[in-house]
Amino acid sequence: MSILRKLLIALIVLIVILGIAGFFLTRGDTAELSVDEVAGTDPTLEEADPESFPTVQIAKPVGWKDGELPEAAEGLTVTRFAEGLDHPRVLYGLPNGDVLVTLTRAPKSDDEGEGGMMATIRRWVASYLFSEAGAAGESPNEIVLLRDADGDGVAEVRQTILTEGLDSPSGMSWKDGTLYVANHNALLSFPYELGAEAITAEPTKLMDLAPGGGHWMRNVELDPEGERLFIAVGSVSNIGESGMAVEEGRAMIWEYDLEAGRQRQFGVGLRNPNGMDFSPWTGELWTTVNERDMLGSDLVPDYLTNVPVGAQYGWPWLYYRTNIDRRVEAPMPAYLMEYARKPEYALGPHVAALGLVFSAEGHRMGDGFASGAFIARHGSWNRKPPSGYDVVYVAFDNLGNPTGKPVPVLTGFLNDDGTTKGRPTWVEWGGDGSLLVSDDTAGIIWRAFAPGAEPAAAIAVLDTEDLPPRNELSGNPNASFGADDYARTQPAQ
Q1: 272 in a domain, yes or no?
Q2: For residue 311, is it within any domain?
Q3: Contact call for residues 115 and 76 (beta carbons, < 8 A)
Q4: Residues 459 and 280 sit within 8 Å (Cβ to Cβ)
Q5: CA distance linking residue 100 with residue 267, whole number of Å
Q6: Residue 439 lies inside a defined structural domain of this protein
Q7: Mean pLDDT in each 10-residue stretch from start to end of the chain (493 residues)?
Q8: Total-model pTM
Q9: Residue 304's closest CA among 379, 182, 203, 403?
Q10: Three-class SS of residue 454?
């Protein structure tokens, strides 16, 4: 084949790729509802409108100018705690006031160069979207220690404490001289004493995790008793379109028993769980979850919910418990709609809810933010107009239930021209009671607080008792299974 003919074929392929990319970027569904209408305890869920091609509207990062700051809610001040970091994602506050941050990106794909022309086009489009959103590039694979030793609100110490053994790291937890880190493919532990500025010991692998995939972040949360670790693992796909076999071990939260050294599935049917924290009212685990795409700009809202042991939230077959996704080809498990749970609180469609912390003892956010949850909404890539790109607060009542609509805490990340200065990713409490927010595309850690606010008291734990066991069956006998019961003739869905 002549060089000229090869060049001609390459040109045609390039034109086809550019044409397909242009087609993606010029189509899409415009939202008919506001983000708030699809948020809260009773969100409006429109009729599903499946898309053959996703709506695409990417907010390209342009960065913050010198001196520029996010817009803080009334009564709050925001400053720069640290900057110049390479894609900071997860923050973790240590008991001594030091803050750890993972510098990380998605792991390198294992299938580059395979799958034919259509696979090449899909990879090219995905790569382009990642690049436009500011998420492309090699993962730095670092854990950095930030320390504000003089108490001026700026981390004057910035020390890389670990690089060896890291592979797209995300979540971290610490207990009694051990740092737990979740790579995209494994949960590891490292010896680490508070105050140390380096980790030199080899890691211990505690458990394998389903690697990489479409949702690669792996958050970790230690329970209040320090006995169990919870690890959030997202799905590969949107709705299982790659087959459910590749979703084995994914779309769930794992529990790892530190004493016994074994794991179990804790909660399932969660498309992409991210931030986790324990309710200060009840001690129950809560998480943020990114829901499915390509049902239009108004569906499906991401959510915040509790996760009791054994919970099932329906992915990929169901969303919001009673809504069947007819696009899913895999057979639905029997009685799934009967035992699937409804999420507690909607956070809005396509907002990409990530980091989560509850109001904690000692926080300095003031009385207006004293009883609820703070959530980083990373921002949409597939909604018109864009959603998220902010930090919000969800108020909880005195029984530990979410109420109302999300309240803005930090905004101003999204520009009027559709570009973005940055993308809030994670939230964590600083040692001085301020709220720290990682901004991955800008490489900044923001610090928000209420000037003059006294450290808050702890939220009162609810005094509850377990229900006594039932010693006999009672109630209406007509409510029991009968000969004509539907479940006897239709055992599966």
Answers
A1: yes
A2: yes
A3: no
A4: yes
A5: 27
A6: yes
A7: 64 58 64 98 96 92 97 98 98 98 90 44 54 80 98 97 98 98 98 97 97 94 98 97 96 98 98 98 98 97 98 98 97 96 98 98 97 98 97 98 98 97 98 98 98 97 78 64 52 51
A8: 0.89
A9: 403
A10: coil
Distance separating alpha carbons of residues 321 and 315, to the nearest angstrom: 9
* Bridge partner residues of 372 (DSSP): 395
Count of domains in the chain? 1
CA distance linking residue 7 with residue 450, whole number of Å: 62
Collapsing DSSP states into helix, strand and coil, what is residue 310?
Answer: coil
Q: Per-residue b/e over 279-313, b at no fewer than 16 CB within 10 Å?
A: bbbeeebbbbbbbbbbbbbbbbbbbbbbbeeebbb
Cα(443)–Cα(425) distance, integer angstroms: 11
354 in Cβ contact with 451 (< 8 Å): no
Answer yes or no: is 153 within a domain.
yes
Angle formed at CA 364 by CA 464 and CA 380, multiple of 5 degrees: 85
Query: 418-450 burial by CB neighbour count: b if 16+ within 10 A, else e?
Result: eebbbbbbbbbbbbbbbbbbbbbbbbbbbbbbb
